[in-house]
């Protein structure tokens, strides 16, 4: 009999690979038009993002942040909430850990300091997500709109706080002071020197753990079941005994906390001070990752690594090929999201036909 | 005479499901042609192919003797085919007028046309006694009125071949009668009508010819006059249907549910329920009869915890239900279920299942916390066992626990819901319209299950607009009208006229 | 010791080397050096703080002799990487980083702004002058504070209007808003506006031209943008700083530490050229040059907003 | 307090609003047909670049407007292909376009003009403000002079287009066949389909209209307000337009009021920056900039709690149960 649906292996691997190739093909065309050799560029990209251990380690460093923002967007999406506010929540998370560190970093050892800072960043992120969640649950205001607004508000608020209160006297850069070394996330190159001198730190391991917890919570627990039911059908979820408004608020708190935790990798793992606009779009990348990874832990991981690789590889490539500015990779990110996320079934009919032909 | 429609070897597959297999039959011009069959027999699919909604994977359709390739509903409409779907195809926030005009606007500017169409609609409504205000917004209309809008649409478009897919599933007896009046007028005008229904009485009453479908194929065809309800039922299900179901003698136990002075005011301070007093005993089925929209749904919602009453008390086994001092009903159904109240909701797709979940996932819907271990994690083995038992005991077809429940036919979805609630062993079961849109074979098995439950000592509150069903199941009948209980009678006193009067709000002093 | 062919690097900040102001000026200084000596340099851009560190480290690892970081956003990164690579020399522009191998170059923006403030006050007929900043940060406040001090030294009662384009880095790239702010200030009577807002300032100066008001450019000499309505530009000789640093390494005279470049050092200045000659009256030129001399001699002290975080006027 | 001038606020508001109005009306068409248009931002940016680049090269603003229109319409059709034909996730498609355009416009601008992702100044190739006849004569007359010269007159032709479009859009939506079909497709595409309306065709046309409308937003930014293209110059206008749409409950007039409200806050903010206000004193600029967003949240939470989106919004039309 002819198959009318693609087997799992085809839809899980063949289609994404074909889509990725299409995106890269369009990207290659653009690179060619810019006057560079696409194949050589790809080689440089892959070399510096994946093959070179230090590059790989940078890739994973960026991915760690993206896993958190991707999880933040994913969990809300599972409940049917489109949280565009991870960017602002991450920004506020940075404020949370900064406040904790500025008051405690000279007094506490790393073992206490780091967990406290993490809790504080999660709490601030959650707090920033609470109001949109509350308004959605109790007042029915669209979380999409309120979180967009909260991003704008966060930007202004953080600017105000940093410029007014956090810049150390006599400094130019609108940023907090550098934290004490106790506040630095332990780096993985301490155990694996091959990783080179990169900021890859235990946040990466925490991110992996978070993915696992997310997978179990959403896929295998009664709570996750209620969460998904809420996302799919409010009426039915209410019938099933889910407290919808509580669910919405709780999910937004978790989502905000995850976004807040994304700040830990950026701030405590790398720069060691709070700077203006440090999330640099990681919250928005989180949306792309959640959508492309279909809110599945493995998918989130793979897309986070892909985006990390693009940032790292693209960066090195633009150093070597001045004709290819870094912005090219923003464009390529968009293409990948378009092909892998929105046109995921572009090749499904063709693949199906091929499979059926082979069967005769 | 040339047949109006001829199906030749129509086949249609959805993935592995063969919805239609080699279907061939003809429909005579100017006749009312019944199509019956179990849930999932392929009736709606066949009609959707005729209406251009689906494309057949094989076979041809002839309209008035001409082979036609109908690729869209637009083309079907051009051929004079009209269809009233199982689920209404109305834009809810449009006026009746705009719904009728949609697709037949007659020009880019609506302005002047609107007035002309409105006048024409008023004229049609008068002629066919349709009682619809063309300027009313559809969402404000009752189900019956929405049905009339669908008919109005077809009259306005002067469809020559009219397909009606289960038009009476949601209608009251009176509404059905007036619909049939219109169908007879159509027939007199020479129009051809295809009527799908699960109610054999209606088939006997109005059709000229019947085609019976089973498993996607034509299982038989006959002139209505030459057949009987029993014979048709046998052809449909492949076995005889018992007309009278066995039940233990009426022996009610202690009162399980006691409702006292229940009132409900909605957001706009309109009183939806007034002074409801109701007692249901163990081992008793109380049927709540009435024209839909008279407060039955609200009462069911309150008793299941989905909605808070404005005042009054409800006790289950002598203990007051915990809705006092709550701001909203969020999460309350879980508590009620915990206390032993099962609930088969009236609208299964809206409330009772998650369409995108599998049958297995839906089999624990509402009971998700019961099948989790103390860490809150699911015990998948136990769930699979439970679901396997449900599929077996309630004959869910296809017996595939991993199938998306949205792909099941309505009857089979209903079996999953009822099975789930029954298997939870409730003390009180609230059942809303358990057999709406369900075929007679399945109706029989659902009725059997409910009676078995009653015999086991469960108190059951049944809300149904089908008097046939009420008669088959109830020990006691309570009639509601305008949010009040207008009267009650024992099953021995069953009397259609009296119930009709009570439904109309006539109190017997 | 002199190095015949030093290996040089320059890292621009988020604005990029074609920003028509700050980074571009640095780029031009480096180009000038290249043209004169034939010595090439490596370029890179750091779009975020995390990246700044990565780029710096990447270049430092190539064993360069000198790396110039353009812009205060590289402060912490330079401090950190400089400690890791003691053999590499670093130059940081616009901010101070600690380290025995770092030379921090600061400009006295308040002094240059003072001069254009004097010019603005004299050019203004309405005695209302405006200032439009990009992002609301101390550096930009330092510009506006110096500008107002200069203006008030001419007319103590002069009215000043100040607006910032925004609070995120997008504020440097919003010419529409820059124009809108200018328009609003003009409607309130302003007739001279000083734009310190990167790309957004383009909108400001453009609007000034349309409305027949005067604009003052910043960082590079922007007089050529709209000859006839550009009163002057307050230049910040970032290019000279880069050129000098490169030359010092080549000559072996490079020194770490903190260098302030004000009027005296030729780090900041105002510009009179063919594009604005007609707008600068002899009296104005005299007054500005007098102010300049007074500041250089120390007779006039211009308060730096950044020292106490506030402006006296 | 006298520093705050109402007249200036009014004029600024009129100038601020069109960017949002064009985009919001574009979004109105897309979303009323059932396609979520979170890709407004990308389309604005792309058309801003195309308009500026072509206007500069040809030195003719109208060629610029046409180019912006073509590019934005092409993107809208791509979005349509993703959402309608491919039945993909509409939010993903839109966000992908936003991200891709943010990168591509920079790369192209850099490639062609070598000015750091900027186009050269348009100079004479800009659209200039229209001065109504008699403006000069009335200039001295109190109020009337201002009103005639600066409120009614003194704007670019695109400003007039923006305001002229409001009744046209309203009429199209509520009094034309296309509008009826459009709304039906956004509410219940199955009903529209059963009535013989092609859901796909209607949605494609809606996207095309959205693309064209949105292009004016970009053209306005580039060749009216700024006089050149600059990377990411849309600065969130697309998202703000979407907010106005929600704010206006997907109705043209309320949506436009939302846009005007945002324009108004922008204008007020310019005015109160650095001014000593009674009671509160001088408010820092960064806090003033929060005001429109905070007000939006309050309004949405308060008396506009229930906004009703088109029912089928975001859902691809699939014939199945
Ligand atoms: N879009 C679809 N995708 C997959 N399967 C479908 C689809 N539509 C119908 N089916 C399957 O095709 C078969 C026939 O369905 P159909 O709706 O035609 O039955 P029916 O006779 O109308 O049933 P009912 O009496 O419940 O209305 C069923 O098994 C159903 O599950
Ligand atoms: N069935 C109809 N017949 C005639 N005119 C109609 C009909 N339906 C709507 N209209 C006209 O359409 C217009 C819009 O209707 P309505 O007031 O419901 O829109 P709205 O949602 O308030 O939108 P907005 O305020 O943005 O215009 C009205 O002018 C109304 O006269
Ligand atoms: Mg059917
Ligand atoms: Mg109205």
From TrEMBL, chain A:
Major subcellular location class: membrane
Pfam families: BPD_transp_2 (PF02653)
Matches recorded under InterPro entries: ABC_transp_permease (IPR001851)
GO cellular component: plasma membrane
Sequence intervals crossing the membrane: 12-35, 55-76, 88-104, 110-131, 143-167, 202-223, 244-264, 270-291, 298-315, 330-352
Entry annotated with the keyword Transmembrane helix: yes
Topology with respect to the bilayer: Multi-pass membrane protein
This protein's UniProt keywords: Cell membrane, Membrane, Transmembrane, Transmembrane helix
Location in or out of the cell: Cell membrane
Keyword DNA-binding annotated: no
One GO molecular-function entry: transmembrane transporter activity
PANTHER family documented for this protein: ABC TRANSPORTER, PERMEASE PROTEIN, GUANOSINE ABC TRANSPORTER PERMEASE PROTEIN NUPP
Protein name: ABC transporter permease
Originating organism: Massilia glaciei
Automatic annotation (TrEMBL), chain B:
Membrane topology annotation: Peripheral membrane protein
UniProt cross-references to Gene3D superfamilies, sorted A to Z: P-loop containing nucleotide triphosphate hydrolases
Keyword Cell membrane: yes
GO molecular function, one term: ATP hydrolysis activity
Domain ABC transporter: 5-240, 257-507
Subcellular location(s) of the protein: Cell membrane
Gene Ontology terms: cellular component: plasma membrane
Primary site of residence: membrane
Alphabetical UniProt keywords: ATP-binding, Cell inner membrane, Cell membrane, Membrane, Nucleotide-binding, Repeat, Sugar transport, Translocase, Transport
Name this polypeptide is given: ABC transporter ATP-binding protein
UniProtKB/TrEMBL annotation, chain D:
Transmembrane segments: 6-28, 63-84, 91-113, 147-173, 204-223, 229-247, 254-272, 287-305
One GO MF term: transmembrane transporter activity
The entry's keywords: Cell membrane, Membrane, Transmembrane, Transmembrane helix
Record-level GO cellular component terms: plasma membrane
Localisation per UniProt entry: Cell membrane
Domain of life: Bacteria
Name used for this protein in its record: ABC transporter permease
Taxonomic source organism: Massilia glaciei
Source species taxonomy: Bacteria, Pseudomonadati, Pseudomonadota, Betaproteobacteria, Burkholderiales
């Amino acid at each position: 009999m002819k198959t009318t649906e693609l087997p799992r292996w085809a839809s899980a691997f063949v289609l994404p690979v074909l889509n990725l190739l299409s995106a890269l093909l369009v990207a290659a065309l653009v690179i060619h038009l810019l006057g560079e050799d696409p194949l050589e560029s790809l080689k440089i990209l892959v070399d510096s993002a994946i093959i070179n251990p230090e590059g790989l380690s940078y890739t994973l460093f960026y991915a760690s942040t993206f896993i958190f923002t991707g999880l933040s967007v994913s969990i809300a999406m599972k409940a049917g909430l489109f949280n565009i506010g991870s960017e602002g929540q991450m920004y506020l998370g940075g404020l949370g850990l900064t406040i904790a560190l500025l008051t405690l970093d000279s007094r506490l050892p790393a073992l206490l300091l780091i967990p406290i800072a993490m809790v504080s960043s999660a709490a601030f992120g959650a707090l920033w997500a609470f109001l949109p969640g509350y308004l959605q649950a109790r007042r029915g205001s669209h979380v999409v709109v309120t979180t967009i607004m909260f991003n704008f508000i966060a930007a202004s608020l953080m600017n105000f706080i940093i410029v007014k209160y956090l810049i150390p006297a006599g400094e130019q850069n609108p940023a907090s002071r550098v934290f004490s070394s106790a506040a630095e996330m332990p780096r993985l190159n301490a155990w694996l020197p091959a990783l080179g001198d990169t900021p890859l730190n235990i946040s990466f391991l925490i991110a992996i753990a978070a993915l696992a917890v997310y997978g179990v919570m959403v896929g295998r627990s009664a709570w996750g079941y209620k969460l998904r039911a809420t996302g799919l059908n409010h009426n039915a979820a209410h019938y099933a005994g889910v407290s919808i408004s509580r669910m919405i608020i709780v999910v937004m708190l978790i989502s905000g906390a995850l976004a807040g935790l994304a700040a830990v990798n950026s701030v405590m793992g790398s720069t060691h001070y709070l700077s203006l606009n440090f999330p640099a779009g990681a919250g928005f990348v989180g949306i792309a990752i959640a959508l492309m990874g279909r809110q599945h832990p493995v998918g989130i991981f793979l897309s986070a690594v892909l985006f990390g690789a693009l940032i790292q590889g693209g960066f090195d490539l633009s150093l070597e090929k001045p004709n290819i500015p870094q912005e090219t990779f923003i464009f390529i990110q968009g293409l990948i999201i378009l092909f892998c996320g929105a046109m995921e079934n572009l090749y499904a009919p063709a693949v199906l036909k091929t499979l059926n032909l082979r069967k005769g | 005479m040339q047949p109006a429609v001829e199906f030749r070897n129509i086949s249609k597959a959805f993935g592995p499901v063969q919805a239609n297999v080699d279907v061939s039959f003809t429909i005579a011009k100017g006749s009312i042609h019944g199509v019956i069959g179990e849930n999932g027999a392929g009736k709606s699919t066949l009609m959707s192919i005729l209406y251009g909604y689906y494309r057949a994977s094989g076979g041809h359709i002839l309209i008035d003797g001409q082979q036609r390739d109908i690729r869209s509903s637009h083309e079907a409409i051009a051929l004079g085919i009209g269809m009233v779907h199982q689920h209404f195809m109305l834009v809810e926030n449009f006026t009746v007028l705009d719904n009728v005009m949609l697709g037949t606007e007659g020009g880019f500017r609506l302005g002047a046309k609107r007035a002309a169409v409105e006048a024409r609609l008023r004229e049609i409504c008068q002629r066919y006694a349709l009682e619809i205000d063309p300027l009313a917004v559809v969402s404000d209309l009752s189900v019956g009125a929405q049905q009339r809008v669908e008919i109005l649409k077809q009259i306005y478009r002067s469809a020559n071949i009219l397909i009606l897919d289960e038009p009476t599933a949601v209608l009251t007896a009176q509404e059905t009668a007036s619909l049939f009046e219109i169908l007879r007028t159509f027939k007199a005008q020479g129009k051809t009508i295809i009527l799908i229904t699960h109610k054999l009485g209606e088939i006997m009453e109005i059709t000229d010819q019947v085609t019976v479908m089973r498993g996607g194929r034509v299982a038989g065809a006959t002139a209505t006059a030459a057949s009987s309800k029993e014979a048709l039922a046998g052809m449909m299900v492949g076995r005889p249907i018992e007309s009278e179901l066995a039940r233990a003698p009426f022996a009610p136990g202690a009162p399980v549910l006691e409702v006292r002075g229940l009132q409900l005011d909605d957001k706009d301070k309109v009183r939806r329920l007034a002074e409801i007093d109701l007692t249901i005993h163990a081992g008793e089925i109380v049927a709540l009869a009435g024209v839909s929209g008279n407060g039955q749904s609200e009462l069911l919602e309150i008793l299941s915890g989905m909605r808070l009453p404005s005042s009054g008390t409800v006790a289950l086994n002598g203990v007051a239900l915990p809705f006092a001092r709550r701001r909203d009903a969020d999460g309350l159904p879980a508590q009620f279920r915990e206390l032993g109240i099962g609930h088969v909701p009236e609208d299964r797709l809206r409330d009772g299942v998650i369409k995108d979940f599998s049958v297995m996932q839906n089999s624990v819907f509402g009971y998700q916390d019961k099948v989790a271990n103390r860490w809150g994690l699911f015990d998948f083995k136990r769930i699979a066992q439970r679901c396997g038992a449900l599929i077996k005991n309630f004959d869910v077809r296809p017996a595939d626990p991993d199938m998306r429940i949205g792909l099941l036919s309505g009857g089979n979805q209903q079996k999953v819901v009822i099975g789930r609630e029954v298997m939870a062993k409730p003390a009180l079961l609230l059942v809303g319209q358990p057999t709406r849109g369900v075929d007679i074979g399945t109706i029989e098995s659902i009725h059997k299950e409910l009676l078995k439950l009653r015999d086991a000592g469960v108190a059951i509150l049944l809300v149904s607009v089908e008097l046939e069903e009420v008669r088959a199941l109830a020990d006691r009948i309570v009639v509601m009208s305008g949010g009040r209980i207008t009267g009650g009678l024992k099953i021995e006193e069953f009397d259609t006229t009296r119930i009709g009067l009570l439904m109309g709000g006539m109190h017997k002093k | 010791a002199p190095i015949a062919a030093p290996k040089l690097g320059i890292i621009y900040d988020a604005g990029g080397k074609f920003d028509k102001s700050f980074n571009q000026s640095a780029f031009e200084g480096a180009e000038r050096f290249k043209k004169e000596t034939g010595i090439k340099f490596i370029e890179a851009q750091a779009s975020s703080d995390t990246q700044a560190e990565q780029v710096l480290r990447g270049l430092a690892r190539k064993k360069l002799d000198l790396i110039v970081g353009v812009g205060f956003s590289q402060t912490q990164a330079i401090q950190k990487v400089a400690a890791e690579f003691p053999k590499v020399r670093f130059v940081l522009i616009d901010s101070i980083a600690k380290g025995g191998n770092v030379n921090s170059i600061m400009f006295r923006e308040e002094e240059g702004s003072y001069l254009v403030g004097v010019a603005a006050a004299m050019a203004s007929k309405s005695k209302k002058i405006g200032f439009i900043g990009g992002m609301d940060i101390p550096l930009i406040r330092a510009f506006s504070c110096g500008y107002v001090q200069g203006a008030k030294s001419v007319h103590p009662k002069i009215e000043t209007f100040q607006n910032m384009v925004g609070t995120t880095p997008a504020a440097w790239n919003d010419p529409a808003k820059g124009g809108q702010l200018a328009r609003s200030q003009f409607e309130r009577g302003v007739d001279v506006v000083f734009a310190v807002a990167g790309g957004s300032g383009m909108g400001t100066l453009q609007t000034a031209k349309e409305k027949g008001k005067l604009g003052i450019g910043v960082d590079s000499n922007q007089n050529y943008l709209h000859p006839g309505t550009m009163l002057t530009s307050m230049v910040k000789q970032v290019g000279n700083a880069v050129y000098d640093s490169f030359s010092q390494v080549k000559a072996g005279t490079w020194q770490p530490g903190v260098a302030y470049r004000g009027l005296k050092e030729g780090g900041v200045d105002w510009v009179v050229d063919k594009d604005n000659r007609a707008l600068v009256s002899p009296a104005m030129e005299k007054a500005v040059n007098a102010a300049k001399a007074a500041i250089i001699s120390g007779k006039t002290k211009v308060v730096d907003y950044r020292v106490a975080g506030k402006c006296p006027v | 307090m006298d520093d705050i001038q109402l007249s200036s606020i009014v004029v600024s508001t009129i100038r601020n609003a069109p960017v949002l109005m064009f985009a919001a009306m574009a979004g109105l068409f897309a979303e009323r047909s059932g396609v979520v248009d979170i890709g407004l931002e990308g389309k604005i940016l792309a058309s801003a670049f195309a308009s500026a680049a072509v206007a500069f090269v040809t030195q003719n603003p109208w060629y610029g407007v046409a180019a912006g229109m073509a590019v934005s319409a092409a993107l809208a059709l791509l979005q349509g292909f993703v959402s309608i034909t491919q039945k993909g996730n509409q939010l993903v498609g839109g966000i992908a376009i936003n991200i891709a355009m943010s990168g591509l416009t920079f790369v192209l601008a850099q490639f062609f003009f070598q000015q750091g992702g900027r186009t050269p100044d348009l100079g004479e190739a800009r659209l200039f403000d229209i001065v109504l006849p008699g403006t000069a004569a009335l200039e001295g007359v109190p109020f009337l002079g201002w009103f005639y010269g600066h409120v009614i007159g003194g704007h670019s032709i695109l400003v007039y287009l923006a305001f002229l479009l409001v009744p046209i859009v309203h009429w199209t939506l509520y009094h034309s066949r296309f509008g009826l079909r459009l709304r039906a497709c956004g509410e219940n595409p199955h009903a529209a389909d059963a009535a013989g309306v092609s859901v796909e065709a209607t949605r494609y046309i809606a996207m095309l209209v959205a693309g064209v409308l949105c292009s004016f937003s970009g053209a306005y930014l580039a060749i009216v307000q700024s006089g050149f293209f600059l990377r990411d110059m849309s600065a969130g206008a697309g998202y703000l337009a979407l907010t106005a749409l929600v704010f206006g409950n997907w109705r043209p007039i309320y949506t436009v009021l939302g846009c005007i409200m945002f324009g108004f806050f922008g204008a007020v903010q310019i005015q109160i920056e650095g001014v000593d206000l009674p009671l509160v004193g001088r408010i820092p600029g960064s806090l003033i900039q929060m005001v429109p967003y905070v007000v939006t949240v309050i309004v949405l939470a308060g008396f506009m709690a229930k906004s009703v989106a088109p029912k089928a919004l975001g859902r691809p039309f699939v014939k199945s149960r």
